[in-house]
Design a protein that fits this description.
The structure is a single chain. The protein is mainly beta and about 500 residues long. About 10% of the residues lie in helices and about 40% in strands. The chain has two domains: about 100 residues, no CATH class; about 300 residues, Pectate Lyase C-like. The strands form five sheets. A 14-stranded mixed beta sheet has the order 6-5-7-11-16-19-22-25-28-31-34-37-39-40, sandwiched between helices. Strands 10-15-18-21-24-27-30-33-36-38-41 form an eleven-stranded mixed beta sheet. Strands 9-8-14-17-20-23-26-29-32-35 form a ten-stranded parallel beta sheet, with no helix packed on it. It is elongated and about 75 Å long. It starts with 8 loop residues before the first helix and ends with a helix.
């Protein structure tokens, strides 16, 4: 019987908020693992299990004859294998669907009460091949995977066959170092902004959580064809810790990697054809975004916000801490305003939460974006607290061919600073910028009017209350009218 995890109540609530969210090759791989297909066959002669002692466990190898005894005493399998090839073993460790393998891992975690952490990590290795699927709940075709995979139990790794090649700078090329690849491919585009996703990773502090989830070595597709609208989410995460997304190629998502109130590492991924949000990270949480290549996609390549959908009566403050290091972000020129990297002070649907963004931006290559780096208030609303602080340090970045400016700094939403909106300005807020020679402030555009109690410090020096910008909304061509209207609304 096919196992499909049910959405927990928190997951259903989170999915309801989604609509509100504003080739080359290399020689250095992200992993040297062999094609998982060979691993699956080899495992027939033995099994990897977690030998439990109280709440701790040790991974050991046992023979097929020993397995039943170990399972009866509470030990469990830690290596599961998925393959569509004929001839694979028929036992507890082998599956034909990724969803079934994850369902078995999930059922075991819940039965043992491993809700926030596991005694041992469970690794699901998917062999090379294309795994077709659907997010249509009415489609009961048992040959398909069913999306999203709702990950709400801890310490599970999903490992595919793609070994991501890296260029001389250590960034993802998008090309595999071998011919092997494991692909998730919907038979139709994921449902639109209402929440269609391949992965939905969720945590409940009072229940179970997808803490420690790792996905690596996959080609992830949205189902949308090149030249058509992007669709759905690649991975959407809420309130999980120690998430790892590494060495994947992601294509055609409306929002590709979207992490909220979490902590995690997004490393050596290749993103292309995004619709709105390529890499979006929101606090409270701590993140590392490194060695990714992000091409011609969303409105902003990397987007950092201190909060999202936060209730100030529960959490009056929220902080995001992030290292954005050694990424290549290029060709983000959607009209009217877009940027390679955008960092903000006030979160979406959290106008009365005092946000703080502490971000390091180091050794990135930002090319042919409307703005290279944008620092603004994000989502200030009238008659709210209108307070948020930003602390940004830059060094070693290469910023080229910015259509408007390499750096924009504003104590209001970007559009108002550029003369095309009437959003309120922050009050009694501080932006502290430590800029290396990569982004000289003498060339920056900024908006810091007086009388509001705001402080702008650049390399320890207070900047006067003035505004400087030379914005031309028509000078970055290339977006359709529909794209421009959608971007203006965000």
């Amino acid at each position: 019987m096919r196992a499909r995890p049910q959405h927990p109540p928190r997951a259903l609530l989170a999915l309801g908020t989604v609509a509100l969210l504003a080739s080359c090759s290399g020689d250095t791989p992200t992993s040297t693992d062999a094609d998982p297909a060979s691993k699956a066959v080899a495992s027939a002669s033995g099994f990897s299990i977690c030998h439990r002692t109280g709440t701790t466990g040790t991974i050991i190898q046992v023979s097929a004859s020993e397995l039943v005894m170990h399972l009866k005493q509470g030990d469990y399998l830690t290596s599961l294998f998925v393959s569509r090839e004929p001839g694979q073993p028929s036992d507890e460790a082998h599956f034909r669907h990724i969803g079934d393998a994850y369902g078995a891992a999930r059922d075991g975690r819940l039965a043992r009460g491993e809700l926030q952490s596991g005694a041992c990590r469970i690794t699901i290795t998917a062999a090379t091949g294309v795994y077709r699927g659907t997010d249509d709940v009415a489609n009961t075709d048992k040959s398909l995977e069913h999306f999203p995979f709702v990950v709400d139990v801890p310490d599970v790794t999903l490992h595919g066959a793609l070994v991501m090649g890296l260029d001389a700078s250590g960034r993802a090329t998008g090309a595999g170092a071998t011919q092997a690849a494991t692909t998730l491919s919907p038979i139709a585009p994921l449902s639109d902004q209402g929440g269609g996703a391949l992965f939905f990773v969720v945590g409940d502090p009072a229940g179970s959580a997808g803490n420690g989830f790792t996905v690596e070595g996959f080609v992830l597709r949205s189902g949308s064809a090149p030249g058509t609208d992007a669709a759905g989410f690649g991975l959407l995460a809420f309130q999980v810790n120690n998430l790892m997304v590494q060495g994947n190629r992601l294509e055609g998502f409306f929002a590709t990697l979207d992490l909220r109130g979490s902590s995690g590492v997004l490393k050596a991924n290749h993103l292309s054809r995004g619709g709105q949000c390529d890499v979006c990270i929101a606090g409270p949480g701590t993140y590392r975004v490194a060695d990714n290549r992000i091409l011609a996609g969303g409105t902003h390549g990397i987007f950092a916000s201190p909060a999202i959908d936060s209730d100030p009566s529960i959490a009056p403050t929220s902080e995001i801490v992030a290292d954005i290091v050694n990424n290549e972000v290029r060709d983000h020129r959607q009209l009217p305003i877009s940027a390679g990297i955008r960092i903000g002070a006030v979160g979406l649907n959290a106008p009365d939460v005092h946000g703080t963004s502490r971000i390091t931006v180091r050794d990135n290559l930002l090319v042919n974006n409307s703005f290279g780096l944008m620092i603004d208030a994000l989502f200030p609303q009238p008659d709210t607290e209108l307070r948020g602080d930003v602390d940004v340090t830059t060094s070693g970045n290469v910023v080229r061919q910015s259509c408007q400016a390499d750096l924009l700094v504003a104590f209001t939403r970007h559009r108002t600073a550029l003369g095309s909106g009437d959003d309120p300005y922050l009050r009694n807020s501080t932006y502290q910028l430590t800029l290396g020679g990569d982004l000289p402030f003498s060339d920056a555009w900024f908006s810091n009017p007086g009388g509001l109690g705001n402080t702008l410090l650049v390399n320890g020096h207070a900047i006067g209350h003035i505004t400087r910008q030379f914005f031309d909304p028509d000078s970055c061509p290339g977006a359709t009218l529909a794209t421009a209207q959608a971007a203006e609304a965000r």
